Amino acid sequence: MNSRDDIFQTLRDALVELFELDPASISLEANLYQDLEIDSIDAVDLIDHIKRQTGKKLAAEEFKAVRTVGDVVEAVYRLIHPEVA
Question: Domains of the chain by range and CATH?
């Protein structure tokens, strides 16, 4: 899970598995809260899933800044590649 595309694929799989979302509805532009109807409890589950996949914890305050799937991809990318941040 090194590239942004890998992260997106893993994230899309997680959203489908965890929240039973239609894979076709998940794009980089999709808003987590409005388009995908992710609530705060779901967001905690997603953060936990990311931690299990990467071995690194995404800070809750950093996750508050994300709005779209693309924002999550970027946050995870920076987490995995701190030299980019």
Answer: 4-80 (1.10.1200.10)
